[in-house]
Amino acid sequence: MSRSSRTRSARRAAITVALASAVAGSLLAATTVSSAAASQKGGASQTKPTVVLVHGAFADASSWSDVIKRLQRDGYPVIAAANPLRGVNSDAAYLRSVLDGVHGPVILVGHSYGGSVITQAAAGDPDVKALVYIAAFIPNVGESAGELAGKFPGSTLGETLNTSSYPLPGGGTGTELTIKQDLFRHQFAADVPAATAAIMAATQRPVSTLALEEKASQAAWKDIPSYALVAGQDYNIPPKAEQWMAERAHAHTVTVDKASHAVAVSHPAAVTDLILRAARDTR
Fold first, then answer.
1. 63 phi and psi angles, rounded to 5 deg
2. Residues 279, 108: contact at Cβ < 8 Å?
3. pLDDT tens across 57-80, in order?
4. Tens digits of per-residue pLDDT, 121-134?
5. How far apart are CA 244 and CA 43, in angstroms?
6. CB 48 within 8 A of CB 75
């Protein structure tokens, strides 16, 4: 091989080594940046707990829409679970399966009958840092939602209900309840605009009578810090019952004097403020 050929070969080899070094350096830099970004992302996700929202009877997860917007705006991850409304034990088991898919701390929020469900589902879960009850049942072991609703006068729910049958998975039929659409706004959402209340009436989820009759077998509020919002003009759960349950649970309590049972729809800022307080207090 001539000297010029050897020189050209040496140059090509040097260029190849330089390019390989440059590519390796770029890959290393990119990997470092990606790892740092992932670390920051992971750290950010862990700085705030996940808020899990559980709706109650005669509602669906969309009832939390304005609360969700506010929480997400403040950087909180949010899950609005679909509550089956079929029985405290089975609904709590379903909610536990949702919680099992959440990594890190949780603020668990229940509205109405959803309070019964979170009280059962959170028992023994170290990741649930606070329970927030929004115009909700806070049962003790051996108590049902129906029993607690009748503990104080003031509920007019029974007068507004339709009943119907539905097939049970193991055979036979169960009974479920809905609120008559023409009475829905006054009963459930008196402080909600009429057009919104009409949509809520049309999309309401029926609740099984079993869900309201089944007794709680766990009471997570005995071990987990609790917060409660009392709706001052609630015709489903008497406000006196909400206040009594909150006091028994030693819950940090706020009252929205003129709020209907649909307080998360009519007063989303007050509901969000209480959730944020729970999140801050339990960091």
1. -65, -15
2. no
3. 999 999 999 999 999 999 999 999
4. 999 999 999 999 99
5. 40
6. yes
